[in-house]
Amino acid sequence: AFKAAVLIQQWYRRYVARLEMRRRCTWRIFQSIEYACEQDQIKLHNFFSYLMDQFTPSSSKERDFISRMFVSGESYKEAELEKYCDYESIEVPDSYTGPRLSFPLLPDHATALLEAFKQKQQLHARYVLNLLHETRKHLKQLPNISHVSTCYSEEVTVCGDLHGQLDDLFLIFYKNGLPSPSKSYVFNGDFVDRGKQSLEILIILFTFLLIYPKEVHLNRGNHEDHMVNLRYGFTKEVMQKYKVHGKKILRMFQNVFCWLPLATLIDQKVLIIHGGISDTTDLDMLEKIQRDKFISVLRIKKRKELSTKPEMEAINGENKSETDAAGNEAAPRLSLQPQSAQAPSTANRLEFSRWLRQTVQEQMDTCRRLVDISESESEELTYSSMVSLKDVDEPCWTRQEEWKQILDILWSDPMPQEGCRENKVRGGGCYFGPDVTEKFLEKYNLQFLIRSHECKQEGYEFCHNRKVLTIFSASNYYEIGSNRGAYVKLGPDLVPHFVQYQANKTAHMLTMTQRQGIPESAFRALREKLFAHTSALISAFKAYDGDNTGRITLSNWATAVESVLRLGLPWRMLRPQLVRSTEDGMLEYKSWLDDLAMEQRSQEHIQSSLLEVIYRNRSNLETIFRIIDRDHSGLISFEEFQQTWKLFSSHMNIELTDDGINDLVRSIDFNKDGNIDFNEFLEAFRLVKQCQ
User: Which residues are catalytic?
Assistant: First the structure.
């Protein structure tokens, strides 16, 4: 009996170990593919930033068009935005049966919205714009770091990423109760993208924010960014649900997002930020940053931004040499030494301030003339926009320093190793270690950090000696049953209490093996990734096939696959599900790749070489299409295409006349309707690939 018990125990432990290994593999597959996609997004916008920096417009009209296209929303001033998004001019028909809003909002309005969204009803565009208008007015009054006290409520509930999963929000309210004077909430960003009901989540949260402004607090996440929304679905969702007024609604959302607070502080002891920190994170700087300047953290630099850098260096007293450390002559740059009068003594503060204002304004006028900035653009470049009279004694930070502060708190992740390094996996932010956390907490006298940004299987996870808590509220994020959602409640003692859940009923019916096993969807995603890199894989395999036998060892197969995909996956363990077993331990890699191609061709009737290109680039092509489609109409106008092509031709040193560009755009417009839709856009790439 004793031996039998030991055998059963050993069998059970091996079984549990195998299930845990499968779970970890599934997690690595989904997470690696997700982070690789985010990395592509940042690379794509870095590329457009480079194009913008290198491109020289031939006229002010051309420059204005390019600027509006790639820096969406930044040129709208207060009066222009209100006029553009005039909700009062939109009539609500008598046939409309959905919820109606009147301001100031009451709790009954929130209840009506919840019931309407449960019944799949849609809020009329007039009310959406009115709600966004009021939300923007409220957010503009808030500081960058919100302060919450547990003295005024029994506890504070902190929720993590929701990512458009409305059922999770409904379940949180069902379990924990609706926001009220005695029930405070902090929602820690990433309300949108990926899920299909991001719009409804924002409407509900903004409604409660206006009803209970002291009890509901919203932090900005890395997905509250219109450039990210272009790729991950929110832009598309808004335009599909509001075909007539979608552009106005999107414009308002872009502006509301940039006014969201950056962090929340509970009882001066617990800091809540979306991503994390770095070794340079400075709460004093974060409190003073003009956060609405950063409509997109993945911003594309405007030329006028570049011209402000020398002035900021002059204000900060920086005077760099015209030669670098190696003694080489530096590139020609503007001389910004004061030309008017000698600087007065700083003892007379008012006189010094006036002199500084006059000097900087003169130099900025010179900058504008040299870089040919129009008067409409120059309004933003006044001295008062950078430093006011009352701030002369305070430090002036460059736009780059402010941008990095926001990038780090929205995009960073913790790591178990000491130190702080660039987050190359996501492509933005940094990895910060326990030593960075400890120094940060000690500097600001904090107990611990709460952040989100990463999906966790149990919905939450501690790290850094329980000083960093990750909370994630979107259950079944990768797959049904893949993870639980969670929220955390903090009382006056600031001891965290967790509540876990799964919003999908199907998840509760899964067996233990189904929960822990690697789902077929994970391997399907992995096979698509492998197929998309067929050409690179063949080259990598041939490097191990010196005799051109068409066969390599399974060990070399695993090494080659990782060298191409760089996903950091345990390929040797995944091999049985990806490669058919062989008796001699050798793989015929060409036939294996042919099998992958056959599997994908069964879904898409296109030649394999072209399909490979589309699989590898479709997400990037779709994002590029949406960037060019400035008005989000789903169509690229001839003018939008012409100006974008000038960017590309400038980068590739291809000279093409306007007539040549017109011929090109007409050849892509297959149905001759005067616009280019996404299918025509993809078809153009297909034809180019076939001609190569």
Answer: 223
